[in-house]
Design brief:
single chain, 100 residues, alpha+beta, 4-stranded antiparallel β-sheet, 2 helices, 4 strands
Length: 100
């Protein structure tokens, strides 16, 4: 997973892809097309102060983004819920099935 986050800092166009058939090489899609029916997905969360990451070393910069399992809920008008980093979801992909 660390390599995936490293690749995101290498310039993948996370914010530029707005088409559902235009995922990044790692399968990330724009939040506009995320399922809002309670389906659990992987969310790419960006900390609210992510813009300071450019001042950090590459090892420290990884801390500004995280991959979390989350889902849309309809409670209180609806919204994304996940456990982990505080921030904003900037991408989603289908939840990988656990290795059994």
């Amino acid at each position: 997973m660390t390599m995936e986050i490293d690749a995101l800092y290498a310039g993948l166009p996370m914010r530029g892809c707005l088409e559902p058939e235009c995922p990044s090489p790692e399968g990330w899609r724009a939040m506009l097309y995320a399922p809002r029916d309670g389906t659990k997905v992987e969310l790419l969360i960006e900390h609210r102060t992510w813009w300071t990451a450019h001042k950090c070393s590459p090892d420290e910069a990884r801390m500004w983004r995280a991959i979390c399992e989350g889902q849309w809920i309809d409670h209180n008008g609806g919204g994304w819920t996940w456990a982990g980093m505080s921030g904003t979801p900037i991408g989603w992909r289908t939840l990988k099935t656990p290795n059994v």
